[in-house]
Amino acid sequence: MTDDVASQVIKAEQDRISCLLDVDRDAYDRLHAAEYRLCNPTGTVWTKDEYLDLLTTGRLVYQELGLIGDVEAIVGTDVVVLRYRCVIQLTVDGADIPRHEAWHTDVYTEDSGTWRCVWSQATGIVDLSLAAP
């Protein structure tokens, strides 16, 4: 049962990534809970509506957003937490953000048989070998 739930939620996360790339409003609404919040790598928190507005107006455009490796899942009774690495390349307000890797943590809850993302946190991965000694 736990593996089935983890598989369902991982599939929902893959669909969520696709809807962000394609700016699919219907899928976006279905996969994000009303109380959804994203904490991006700058520490800025966007609500579901703010994030969708950025995507639909073209102020935020993902050129690339893809999983690297496996997705780890912790499955509870009515909550699932996912963690994975991804590669991201995007434009925000006309500024190109270079291709980079990040860790993502996403929290899903079940609502009437549908798993929806409630919280997302993206943490950029810095290559410390480039830092000055």
Automatic annotation (TrEMBL):
<dbReference type="InterPro" id="IPR027843">
    <property type="entry name" value="DUF4440"/>
</dbReference>
<dbReference type="InterPro" id="IPR032710">
    <property type="entry name" value="NTF2-like_dom_sf"/>
</dbReference>
<feature type="domain" description="DUF4440">
    <location>
        <begin position="10"/>
        <end position="117"/>
    </location>
</feature>
<protein>
    <recommendedName>
        <fullName>DUF4440 domain-containing protein</fullName>
    </recommendedName>
</protein>
<dbReference type="Pfam" id="PF14534">
    <property type="entry name" value="DUF4440"/>
</dbReference>
